[in-house]
Amino acid sequence: MAQLVNVIFILVFIFAIAAFSIWVMVRGDQILDKWATDNGYRIIKREHWLFWQPFRFPAVRSAQSVYHVTVLDAAGNEKQGLVFCGSWLLGVIQNTAYVKWDD
Question: Residue 37: which of 79, 66, 73, 6 has the closest Cα?
Fold first, then answer.
C-alpha cells in the first residue's frame, strides 16, 4: 500500500510540473502577443528559449518566458531581440514584457 501511495504522489508531482510548464509557455505567448500589439510590431519569427545564457541574463527566473523575436515596426523596419515576459518576482503572473534589442 505504501508503494502505491508513493507512485501516486510521484505521478501527481510530475503532472503538476508539466501543467505549470505548459501554463508558463501559454501565458508567455499571450504576454508576447500583447506586447507586440501595444507597441505596433508584427512578429515575423519567435523562438521560445527554454535555456538561455545565465551569465548574460542573470535576472531571468524559471517563471518568466524568454523569446527571441524578429519583428517589423510600422515603418517596415526589421528588428531582433529578446523579450522577457513576466516580472522577475512573479513571473508570468504579472502582465509585463521587457525587450533587449540585438545590437
Answer: 73
Report pTM.
Answer: 0.80
Cα 67 from Cα 28, distance rounded (Å): 9
Model confidence at 94: pLDDT above 70: yes
Please answer whether residues 43 and 53 qualify as being in contact, where contact means their C-beta atoms are separated by less than 8 angstroms: no
Task: Write out the H or E segment, with its range, that includes residue 43.
Answer: strand 42-49
57's grid cell: 541574463
The rounded distance, in Å, linking the Cα atoms of 70 and 80 is 4
Cell of 21: 510548464
| CA gap 4, 13 in Å, rounded | 14
